[in-house]
Amino acid sequence: MGSDTEAEKKKTPVALAPIAKPLAGKKLCKKTLKLVRRASEAKCLKRGVKEVVKSIRRGNKGLCVIAGNISPIDVITHVPILCEEANIPYIYVPSKEDLATAGTTKRPTCCVLVMTKPAKGEISEEVKEKLKSDYDQLVTEVAEATSAMF
To answer: What local confidence, expressed as pLDDT, does residue 2 receive?
Structure first.
């Protein structure tokens, strides 16, 4: 019953969706999840398809991070189109479980929107500056990954 260890569970292969492009490499994935964690701590994160779509339609800007192992894929097929129309950069990461862990939730998450300023309240200037610099660096790398794709 308890024979599966955490390491064995993590080694199971992930079935990626065919539309998961641009997919973050190992290094970019790690940076992306780190930014998601920082944004979550600073309350600058929208989790889930419903919240992300609502934020994009309201004109909020940020970086959209989408999980590549979503089943059924129809749940998120419209999100990249919305992002492109709103000029919001987006990137796919291999695992929804890792995305949820980075976003400090236990429930697997399809997509998150990393914003540079919180939806409510204020954050300290130091945290805001660090988040903004990490965000800018990651957006540049995502743009490079996207341009290499086309």
So the answer is: 52
Task: Note whether 45 and 36 are within 8 A (CB).
Answer: yes
Euclidean distance between CA atoms 144 and 149, whole angstroms: 9
Looking at the predicted structure, is the pLDDT value of residue 1 above 70? no
Q: CA 92 to CA 14: how far, in whole Å?
A: 13
Q: Which residues contact 51 (CB under 8 A, 6 or more apart)?
A: 113
DSSP one-letter string for 63-110: EEEEES--SSGGGTTTHHHHHHHTT--EEEES-HHHHHHHTT-SS--S
The predicted model scores a pTM of 0.86
Alpha-carbon span 129 to 47, nearest angstrom? 22
Which position has the token pair 């934020």?
55
Alpha carbon distance, N-terminus to C-terminus of the chain = 47
Q: What angle do CA 25, 49, 116 make, to 5 degrees?
A: 65
Render pLDDT for 35-51 as a digit per residue (tens, 0 to 9): 999 999 888 999 999 99
Buried b (16+ CB within 10 A) or exposed e, 13-29: eeebbeebebbbeeebb
What pLDDT is recorded for position 18? 84
Structure tokens at 107: 């429930």
